[in-house]
Amino acid sequence: MTARLMVVVGYEAAELLDIACVTTTLAMANGIGAPAVPYEVLLAGPGGGPLVCGSGLVLGSDQSLERITGPLDTLIVSGGTGFERAAADGRLVGHVRRLARESRRVASVCTGAGVLAAAGLLDGRRATTHWRFARQLAERHPQVTVDPAPIYVRDGHVYTAAGVTSALDLTLAFIEEDHGPELARQVARDLVVYLQRPGNQEQMSLFTATPPARDDVVRSLVEHIAAHPEQDLGTAALAARAGVTPRHLTRMFTEQLGLAPGRYVRRTRTEAAAQLLASTALPMERVAARCGFGSAEALRQAFTQRFGIAPSRYRAAMRPTREGRKPEGEREAV
């Protein structure tokens, strides 16, 4: 294989960010990591003409959707305000169905799930979409199990992502599957995003999430906590790192983040554990150690309190298999 052919499907009134989050992230992976098997990214639309996005900006498509043939590595259907017309376009849906048969992976971003559903590609599968359109998708396609909560869902070789910038999380997950976690981390750093929100993170939690810190000291500590959950992150250690007293640090965290340092660290660690549980086959003890918990039991208690489910049950729910096979890209425990 000389390149991984990634085809992004656009249409009239597609969402520009849905497209750009995918194409830019893949291009950065090529530039940063120079992988042995790079990504070849094509934007395709009906007829191959210019695509007028929902914002009014015009994109030039690389090729006519009708002229593309497989095999493809990944087919990705974007969302946008024009998704209903796209889903009702028999020719467009037919070509998506045709190319899906010739693709290793099939994915949608945001309301692009409506196009996949119209093509019958989500029948009998669990899927997500933008929270605002989840009920509509479920009502129109009762054969699809619509979960409005997660950032993205993988069911076999079919992936569906939630609203707009969830395309970043999904594409970073693709890069990690294809080339390993280090390249995904490098791309995430250059994109100035946290390395992949776990796919299970609830969409609506984004609106009630901890607000960003206003103070440089707190912001620096937040970044340190996210990057090094396994280290000593006690209030005294964090205060010493920041050059302030523990009492002052507690006041700063409470005022700016709404949580005392200890509670903030505990939450960050449980979220890091959720990501590892969903994306690796590491034993529970290793997950606990990497995330700063003293034992698997300490992880279990914190995880159950935070998410209302034991980590073992969470892992089983988030890593479904088909016919007893491991999910593609699963890494063995090390």
Please give a structural write-up:
With 334 residues, the chain is of the alpha/beta class. Helices cover 46% and strands 14% of the residues. It has helices at 16-33, 83-88, 90-101, 113-118, 134-140, 166-179, 181-191, 216-227, 235-242, 246-257, 261-279, 284-290, 296-307, 311-318, and strands at residues 4-9, 39-45, 50-52, 58-60, 63-64, 72-77, 103-109, 126-127, 145-146, 152-155, 158-161. The strands form three sheets. It has a seven-stranded mixed beta sheet, sandwiched between helices. A hairpin with a 2-residue loop joins strand 10 and strand 11. Helix 1 crosses helix 7 (181-191) and helix 9 packs across helix 10. It is elongated, with a radius of gyration of 21 Å.
What's the helix and strand layout?
Blueprint: E1 4-9, H1 16-33, E2 39-45, E3 50-52, E4 58-60, E5 63-64, E6 72-77, H2 83-88, H3 90-101, E7 103-109, H4 113-118, E8 126-127, H5 134-140, E9 145-146, E10 152-155, E11 158-161, H6 166-179, H7 181-191, H8 216-227, H9 235-242, H10 246-257, H11 261-279, H12 284-290, H13 296-307, H14 311-318
Parallel strand pairs: 1-2, 1-6, 2-5, 6-7, 7-11, 8-9
Antiparallel strand pairs: 3-4, 10-11
Helix pairs in contact: 1-6, 1-7, 6-7, 9-10, 11-13
